[in-house]
């Protein structure tokens, strides 16, 4: 999240020098295992630890959706995920970068057959469900919960989206209370192990 918040300077610069100019974020993402590939070093460097920037496949999927929502809340007009696929990790690549950015794909590398990762499916469903919606407002944004309003271009709220601001590997479920006078949707979903599922 600290890297996402670091982007605030772009809006300050835009507002001072080119008010109204849309801002596109051309690269955001997380490295993760998955698609038949790990974050471990090549066999020749087996004594090296996995690179610490790498998260689990589940966490990458969760952070992708959360990240898109927070970036939309900040006002980015368009987001582009980095990268479409993992990179094959050679010994030379490992020695240069220790794996950084080699596992940020939505699918595995060509050498692993371009297998889909959970993040691809999570973003596909996110776009299918909310791709035409816009950020409208914050209902709650604190250490207990993030809850955002999404809606049409005219500001009419059609969906609420919320999550616990916890580690992607933390599977706890909690009841979060907040006051809200509108009822934008009769359906609710939650991100499960590899798909969105109806929320109870």
Task: Describe what you observe in this structure.
By secondary structure, the chain is α+β, with helices and mostly antiparallel strands. It has helices at 2-5, 8-17, 57-74, 91-97, 118-130; strands at residues 24-28, 78-81, 134-141, 146-151, 157-163, 189-191, 196-198. The strands form 3 sheets. Strands 3-4-5 form a 3-stranded antiparallel beta sheet, with helices on one face. It has a two-stranded parallel sheet with strand order 1-2. A hairpin with a 4-residue loop joins strand 6 and strand 7 (196-198). The longest helix is centred in the first third of the chain and has 18 residues, at 57-74. The chain is globular, with a radius of gyration of 18 Å. It starts with a helix and ends with a strand.
Uncertain ranges: none
Largest sheet: 3 strands, antiparallel
The share of residues in helices is: 25-40%
Gyration radius, in Å: 18 Å
Overall form = globular
Count up the helices.
5
Strand fraction band? 15-25%
Q: Structural class of the helices, strands and pairings?
A: alpha+beta
Q: What is the straight-line distance between the termini? A: 29 Å
Spatially, the strands of the biggest sheet line up as 3-4-5
SSE string: HHEHEHHEEEEE
* Beta-strand segment tally: 7
Overall average pLDDT: 90
